[in-house]
Design goal:
224 residues; globular; mainly alpha; 8 helices
Amino acid sequence: PFVVALWLPVLIACDMATIRQYPKEWSPRAFTRLAPGMLMGIIATTCLLSTIDLKAPPSHLKMQEAWLKLFIALIATVFVVMQLLPKKAAGDVAWDPPWIASIPIGFIAGVTTMVAHAAGTIITMFFLPMKLDKRVFVGTTGRFFFVFNTLKLPFYLFIGWITWETTRYGIWLMILGPLGVLFGSWMNKRVSAVLFVRLIYIFLIFAVGKLVWDWYGTVFAASA
């Protein structure tokens, strides 16, 4: 809880810097498709987290988080493999996500973002098949996270996770985070659309490796 609460203001600062770099590049349709399920997931998880005793040993929460990360890693692995398989010409058509898919995906993203700020992988998988322009992709992602990370603030305050200590330790990160956004924006203008998508897939693969490593460390450390 301490680390998750510490990072939230940092993420919001990065989101604000992203919107500043991409003031008009975003897709309202992609945003609104995912938003309802995301909101449901955040509310449902807040109700669950409010019942957790923060003074109790956190081992059970870490174990649940570890298995959640493994679940996300498996989904991402299947997604990457499916995207890399040879496709027919029809496969180049941009995906128009129906509500029947958007709401469950948004709900899962809402749960993972509340528990561990781990929704980035899921949201990337949702937006990539829509074949958005690279600047629209980043601008939409930045706005989406800004809205829902900001929305998480009162929920985290309600369950008692955000304190003066978490804010104090995160101040210097709030300064450095936006500098990374500026560098990323500079790169975005100089990277081709094809290379941009390939880099996103590479980052997804690295994310899968990190999630699996976290799961392995938590589960096997507990059993040692």
